[in-house]
Amino acid sequence: MPDAKILIVDDHEDTLYALESALAPLGYLLGRATSGDEALKQVLRGQVGLLLLDVRMPGVSGLDVVRYMRRVEQTQHIPVILLTGFGLDHVLTSAAFGLGVADLVMKPIDPWALRTKVRYLFDSHRRYLDLEQEVRELRALVKDHAEAEIPLPRGPALPHPDAHVPVQRAGRAHNGELEEERT
Length: 183
Description:
Layout: E1 5-9, H1 13-23, E2 29-33, H2 36-45, E3 48-54, H3 62-71, E4 80-84, H4 90-98, E5 103-106, H5 111-148
Parallel strand pairs: 1-2, 1-3, 3-4, 4-5
């Protein structure tokens, strides 16, 4: 997802400008929307790697956007930071985190804290998508090898991250027994 953007959604132009200014130093591609409907259209078109979303907007609210996104396979894993200027209450907090939002942030926003959260969530989501792509490629490779009846290459066993666990040698251990590594 090389051209992924951070989509900023708020019905107030001044808030959009402030958020864009706060995030500009990160160097990520930024998009904007002024309504929940517009946000959903952009998210469904793809290339959104993170959503900063106002909770209360006329028409489709931020929570409604998240509810819809979580039901659609292509958008359910996009991280969302909800923004509110009306204070946090128990109902909003439980609804937001129940929908799987990454964070719920009060306005006015601390730019440094927001940049830190955005960098972490955006980069984590990008790594998640890269791993997902690698898994698809590996599954296709295994399927192609299985269909062609080509044996997969077998390399040496990888060392266990715990140095106290003895190395299991393929083909030399019998009945699940481990062979001590000889040095």
